[in-house]
Amino acid sequence: MSVTNEIEEPGETGMLKYASVSRFHDGDALMQHALTATELATAAARKYFRGRLGVEFKADESPVTQADRGVETVVRDYLSAQFPDHGIFGEEHGIERGERDDLWIVDPIDGTRSFLSGHPMFGFLLGHLHKGVPDLGVIAMPALGEVLIGRKGGGAHMNGEQVRASDQTDLSKAILFVNEGDKIHKDRPAVFGRLMQAGQTRRFAYDCYPHALVAMGHVDAVVDYDLQPYDYLPVSAVVEAAGGVMSDWQGRALTISSGTQAAISAATPQLHAQLLDLVNG
Question: What's the pTM value of the predicted model, to 2 decimals?
Answer without folding.
Answer: 0.88
